[in-house]
Structure formats: structure tokens, C-alpha cells
Amino acid sequence: MDLLLLGPPGAGKGTQGARLAEHLGLPKFATGDLLRDAVRRGTPLGLKARAVMEAGQLVSDEIILGVVRDELAKPAASRGVIFDGVVRTIPQAKGVEALLAELGRRMDHVLFFDVPDEELLARLERRRTLESRADDDPDAVAVRLKAYREQTAPVLDWYEQRGEVLRVDAVGSIEDIATRVHEALGIS
Ligand code: ADP
Fold first, then answer.
1. Which of 14, 83, 157, 181 is 20 to 30 Å from the Cα of 148, by its Cα?
2. Which residue stretches of the chain have pLDDT < 70?
3. Measured distance CA(148)–CA(111) in Å, rounded
4. Could you list the residue range(s) of the whole structural domain that residue 90 is in?
């Protein structure tokens, strides 16, 4: 099963995605984690992505589709992948669709994590103080939310037209949200 987790920064995709990956026995793939790791290690990918990420902007579709292609080529990805925040622009949605189609697969479900703006800002501020992520500083957060609204929100409509979107109210305890995720997917 291929599953996309979609939602604004701070919506809890990573937390729920990790639980779901364990529950379903599928690998979780988060472009944000992969890029942050590349920046930390100073790899060529990291050197390319660093300034863009720290400013809160989106790295290029070409880079993202390259890393998705690499991920899908891994044996561990053969039964499906939980894509955590991987698709953030319409060209990425189309590109990932084409890469999956090469394997005879499609995005089976899109889970949209729904959180009001005030709650998001409070969560991101909390995370900034706990994790000191360079891209959680207030200016970068504002840029990320803008990038989300302008470039990623249309992706939701794109998938909605294909009827693949499951909406989850992502306000509440981690346990409550996990229960809603399972209900949406119809798994126990
Ligand atoms: P968040 O969901 O809070 O934005 P992530 O850890 O998922 O955080 O991503 C961190 C940063 O990595 C993003 O702000 C962006 O610069 C980059 N990034 C991650 N995934 C993508 C993607 N699919 N397209 C473009 N940029 C991405």
C-alpha cells in the first residue's frame, strides 16, 4: 500500500506516520528528514538544499523526484511506502504518480491532517524551543506556511479530484489522532 501524508508544517504527520509505519510494517519516507540528514552530513544534496531549507522555501521538484526515485528502487519499498510530506507541489504529485506507475502502483490513499492555523503556530513555536531546528525560526515558519498555502494546498485539491483523500481531524492527543487515522483507513 502506498500512502501519502499531507498537511501543513506542524500537523503531526511525522509522529502519526512513524506509528503507522510500524503498525503496517512499511517503510516511512520523509523528504524533510532525508534532506536535514543530508545537510548535517554535508553531502552534495545537503549543500544544494541547505540555504533553501533554512529560508523555509521548497527545494526543487527535480531534487525531490530524484530522491523519490531512489527510495522506490530500494527493496524495502517494494510492498509500499508511507510518504510523509513528500509531495508539496503539483509537478511533484504528477512526478510521483509517474514513478509509481512505472512500478504498476498508484497512491492508494492520501491522509490529510487538518489543523487550524493558531494551533499550528503554537506547535511550531514549541518545537522550535525543544528541537532547535534551523527552519523553525519565526521568519522561516512564516515562509513555510506561505509555501504550504500557495504550493501545497493545491495538491490537496488535485488528489481530491481523484477521490483519494481521507481527512483526519488532527487536533487532540496523539492516541486520539492515531485512532482517527486507523478509522479513516479502515484498519484495526
Ligand atoms: P515541515 O513539514 O514542518 O515543513 P519537513 O521536515 O517535512 O518540515 O520539511 C523541512 C523542509 O524540507 C521544508 O521546509 C522544505 O524546505 C524541504 N522539503 C521537504 N520535503 C519537500 C518537498 N517534497 N518539496 C520541497 N521541499 C521539501
1. 181
2. 134
3. 16
4. 3-178
Q: Catalytic site residue 180? A: no
Q: Is 19 a catalytic residue?
A: no
Half-sphere exposure of 150 (CA within 13 A, CB side): 8
Averaged pLDDT of the chain: 94
Q: How far apart are CA 145 and CA 125, in angstroms?
A: 13
pTM for this entry: 0.92
pLDDT for 122 equals 87
d(CA 122, CA 117): 9
CATH number at residue 12: 3.40.50.300
Domains of the chain: total: 1
**133 is annotated as an active-site residue:** yes
Å from CA of 24 to ligand 1 middle: 24
| Coil vs helix vs strand at 6 | strand
Q: Which of 88, 106, 149, 167 is catalytic?
A: 88
Instruction: Report the largest interatomic distance among the alpha carbons of the chain, rounded to a whole angstrom.
Output: 43
Return the best residue to mutate from 59, 94, 141, 155 for the ligand 1 pocket (most ligand atoms within 8 A of CB): 59
CA nearest neighbour of 125 among 20, 13, 9, 6: 9
